[in-house]
Amino acid sequence: MPFLDNRADDSHRYPQVEFVQGESTELVGAVGVLALAQGSLGTMRQCDDDILARVRACHGAVRLRDLGLDRTERRHAQKLVEARALFAYPHGVVALPGAGWDLILARVHGGLITCLHAVKHYGYPRPRLWAPVHLAVPHTSNRAPLRGEVLHVESGLELPPLAQFPVAPVPLMLALYLRCAPSREGPLMACDAALHQGHTSAEAVATLLRGPGSVQARGRLALASPRARSPLETLARLQLHDAGIPFVDGVDIPRVGEVDLLVAGWLVLELDGYTYHEDEFQFARDRTRDRELIKQGYRVARFTRKDVELGKVGAEIHQLLAAGNRSHSRKRPKSA
Question: CATH number of 34-96: 1.10.10, 3.90.79, 3.90.550, 1.10.287?
C-alpha cells in the first residue's frame, strides 16, 4: 500500500529530515547571535541609563570623577557626550541638557551657590535685575572664573553630599549677600523673608560677617525685621528710615489686626500689592479695617506697589505728618 511503501522507503525520508535539521541549526545559530547582540545592546543601554540616572541624582550636573566610574563606564560617558545626551564642561564636569549655569559653575569650582541666585533657590523675594553667579568656594580653590562669576573664598567651607543641591545655607548666603550687594534693598528683602519664616536669626547671620564689607553688612542687618510680611514693607521701611521718620512695624491693633507700619502713634501705613486690586473680598476687607481704624482715632495712608517702587513713601509721610500736626494745633483750646 502507498502508506506502507512510504514508510519503508528510507530514501524519501532521511534526506528531508537532514535538510530540515541543517536549516534549523543555521536558524538557531542566527537567533543566538541576534540574541547576544540584543543582550549586548541592552547592557549598553542599561549602562547609559545608569550613568544618566546618576547625573540626574546630582541635580543634573556633576564631576565625573565624583561618580566613581570604572573604565567601561567612562567610555560610555564619553559616548553620551558625543551623542549630546550629556554636555562636557571644564574640570571634568558633565551636565544634562537644560542644567542651570549656577549649578554647572558650582560643580566646576567645587563650591556653593550664594547671594542672588541662592535667594532665588530659597524662594525669597528679590529685585528684578541680572547679576552674575556668586559662589562660596573653599580657600583651596584656585580656578579662574569661566563666565564672570564672583567667587567668595570661605575658610572651613563644608560641601553637602552630591545628592543635595549645592547652595549655601541661609545664614551664610545672607551674610555674603549683605556684604557684596551694591545696594541694600535686595539683601534686606531676603533677610526679612528669612527672619519672618524662621529660617535663621539675625544673630546667626551676624556671626558670619567677617572680611571685606562686613562693617557695611552689619549696618544693613540692623535694618532687617522679622515682622516684615512682604518686600513692599521692607522698601517702605527703608524709605521711612532714610527720611528720618520713626516708625513701628507689624503693630497689632484691637479689632483690626496687624497693620504694616505705624508712624507717630496715629498714622497707619498700609501697602497694597497689585493682587489686592483684583480681589473684591480683600478690597472690601481693607475698607472695613480702614473704617475701624478711623473710629479708633487713627488716620490711614495707603500706598500701591508703584508708589513704593517710585520712592514716594518718605516725602508723602512727611507731608501727612505736617498736615496732621497743623490739624491737631487748630483743635487745641485757646488758653484763657
Answer: 1.10.10
